[in-house]
Automatic annotation (TrEMBL):
Transmembrane segments: none annotated. It comes from Microbacterium hatanonis. The keyword Oxidoreductase applies. The lineage of its organism: Bacteria, Bacillati, Actinomycetota, Actinomycetes, Micrococcales. Belongs to the HpaH/HsaA monooxygenase family. Pfam families: Acyl-CoA_dh_2, Acyl-CoA_dh_N. SUPFAM superfamilies: Acyl-CoA dehydrogenase C-terminal domain-like, Acyl-CoA dehydrogenase NM domain-like. GO terms for cellular component: cytoplasm. Keywords: Oxidoreductase. The keyword Oxidoreductase applies. It comes from the Bacteria. This is Acyl-CoA dehydrogenase C-terminal domain-containing protein. InterPro entries: Acyl-CoA_dehydrogenase (IPR050741), Acyl-CoA_DH_C (IPR013107), Acyl-CoA_Oxase/DH_mid-dom_sf (IPR046373), AcylCo_DH-like_C (IPR036250), AcylCoA_DH/ox_N (IPR013786), AcylCoA_DH/ox_N_sf (IPR037069), AcylCoA_DH/oxidase_NM_dom_sf (IPR009100). Residues 287-421 form the Acyl-CoA dehydrogenase C-terminal domain. Residues 70-157 form the Acyl-CoA dehydrogenase/oxidase N-terminal domain.
Length: 434
């Protein structure tokens, strides 16, 4: 869910006249959905990952995947989607089972592991890390629904994932009918929807027009191929459109009841500590982890290549070796240090959030506000870091396929996410501690 703020989100619901392609053609639509259908068919035949996989196994698997993700990152950026093979590898590693209950083959791991895996995947490809982070985090949204819905989604296929947009679209129409609703509307920024078997949308319903969450099969929607951003191009955050689709009553809930319903469902999965985490989760750092991982990866690339890198000395020619410049050393040390500080902050705060959940202690307002602040702060720090490294590379970084160029565009895009608004986070934090 790649949500922007205010007018940007509303504008997306209406459509963007400046986009090159407003929607897929009838000939293209089957192709857009074929990947999801094939992924669902293949995944259904797979057994769940080994229940013996540990938190350390997950982090090690993410680190082992970095070289492959780096090799594929330029293609992901150009194709505006991760490959089906990469998606399958994410599933095979057990990443989509990290935050699932044991009843459905899940590993019942914590927010701390989620953040660490996302940061490491982003070192290789930020879009791939984002797809993991979104689809893994959205498991929590499924857990807010009745056991009947959980069985419907994960019973046939423990690898099933959920994408969509939980921001209410006020222009959507949900008509109450016998046994459920008929839903019509469009929702933008549906990250990971290239592969998800299920979708979740927020639409007004009832006499008061309050937001309701609707869960429906991906096959009930059409893809609008409108994802042409400058950064995070491979996240598949396209608009999904539904037209007069029936959604049964058991897959519809008041949006404002989500937190309450999650607490009710704890009894269904009594050993799953992450059921005690806040929702939406700040301690998971779902978006900031991707930004920090991208800056981390950019710093690694620069360090690995600086020994053979040069820049033009001046307008008359000549060359300067970057590794011999005091200025470059000073600037890079600052940028790399900033990225590392942001990583350590995420690791500490995500661990603290996980420990609270493990102790079955709900976060206080001050803790939630601090985590929100630190989500924005770590992203802000990552942005400064990657921009600084970009300036050291010089004109070569203007090439769209350059790893530092891609990292910079990705972090800039992430920094606009609604949950990472620095001023809003700062105001809430001050109110909570004063």
């Amino acid at each position: 869910m790649f949500c922007l703020t205010g007018d940007e989100a509303a504008h997306t619901m209406e459509g963007d006249p400046f986009r090159a392609t407003a929607a897929t053609t009838p000939q293209e639509r089957p192709t857009m959905n074929a990947m999801t259908s094939e992924a669902s068919r293949v995944a259904a035949a797979r057994p769940a990952p080994s229940p013996d996989l540990t938190a350390d196994d997950m982090v090690a698997a993410a680190q082992a995947m970095i070289p492959l993700l780096r090799e594929r990152a330029a293609d992901v950026d150009a194709d505006r989607r991760i490959s089906a093979d990469t998606y399958r590898r994410l599933g095979d590693a057990g990443f989509f089972h990290m935050l699932k209950p044991k009843k459905y083959g899940g590993l019942e791991l914590s927010e701390h592991e989620h953040a660490r895996v996302a940061m490491n995947l982003a070192r290789g490809c930020t879009s791939t890390a984002w797809v993991f982070s979104i689809l893994s985090s959205d498991n929590t949204a499924i857990l807010a629904f009745p056991e009947e819905v959980q069985d419907e989604i994960w019973g046939p296929d423990t690898f099933a994932t959920l994408a969509g947009n939980t921001n209410m679209n006020p222009k959507a129409v949900a008509e109450k009918v016998r046994g459920g609703y008929r839903l019509t509307g469009q929702w933008g920024f549906c990250s990971g929807s290239d592969f998800s078997e299920w979708l979740i949308f927020n639409a007004p319903a009832g006499d008061d027009g309050e937001g309701h969450m609707f869960v429906l099969p991906h096959s009930d929607a059409e893809t609008v191929d409108d994802w042409y951003p400058t950064g995070m191009r491979g996240t598949g955050s396209r608009t999904m459109s539904v037209s007069d689709v029936f959604v049964p009553e058991h897959r519809v809930q008041l949006a404002k009841d989500t937190v309450h319903k999650l607490k009710e469902r704890r009894a269904l999965h009594p050993t799953f500590d992450t059921m005690w985490a806040t929702w939406p989760s700040n301690g998971r750092f779902p978006f900031a982890s991707c930004a920090v991982g991208a800056a981390w990866g950019a710093a690694e690339h620069f360090a690995e290549t600086v020994g053979t890198s040069t820049r033009v000395a001046n307008a008359l020619g000549g060359a300067v070796r970057l590794s011999e410049s005091d200025y470059v050393a000073s600037e890079f040390a600052q940028a790399q240090g900033d990225a590392e500080m942001a990583r350590l902050l995420i690791e500490k705060r995500s661990l603290q959030a996980s420990e609270r959940a493990r102790a079955r202690v709900e976060s206080t307002e001050a803790e939630v506000a601090r985590d929100l602040r630190d989500n924005a702060l770590s992203t802000r720090t990552a942005l400064r870091s990657v921009q600084q490294i970009f300036s050291l590379v010089g004109a070569k970084a203007g090439n769209a396929s350059h790893p530092v160029s891609r990292a910079k565009r990705d972090v800039e895009m992430i920094s606009h996410h609604v949950t990472l608004n620095w001023r809003q986070g700062a105001v809430r934090y001050l109110a909570a501690v004063s």
